[in-house]
Write a structure and sequence with these properties.
six-stranded antiparallel beta sheet; alpha+beta
Amino acid sequence: MSRQEEDTKAEISPMMTEQGREELYLYSLRKMAEERADSDRAALTGLYGPKSFFFKANECMQQFTKKCMKLYSSYPCLYATDYKPEGFAWINANDVDNSVYSFIRISPDGKKNLLFVLNFTPVARKQFRVGVPADCKYRLVLGSHEKTQAKQLTVDKGDCDGYSHSVLVDLPEYGIAVYEFTAKQLENKTRI
């Protein structure tokens, strides 16, 4: 997977989760216009043949975008509480040293909540500790490198990011990991 693909995944993923979808819509329009211009140029030069790098990269991005759209439609926490403060909580938005950001989207019924962990650097983060609001199972539902990322996380006891429990996440460079968890009662974050 190319560096440009990794950058694009890192750009698209947060847009799928943030409150409001205007950014994703504008981004999609811009990317479609760019792809149209690229495909017009490529038609003249023959760069987009089925065996070319560009064809495979575009196919990979299409598959990832489909996964993002399926995630959005399958998880009410991404749309049911979109404009309510209780539907979103930062785990850590201040990790300037690692440029790793984490947050949760909370569904109204406490089922199918999502934990997002995003790495915005070209440095892989192995066993990166992230605080979590509940001692429960965390199952991978979307990842930029799903083949190598842990499918389920084990919760450890110990303070991290203002929570009394944490998980260890393997994050590839410019990577994203989204984990589903169910917990009706979430721990309140203490100030860190």
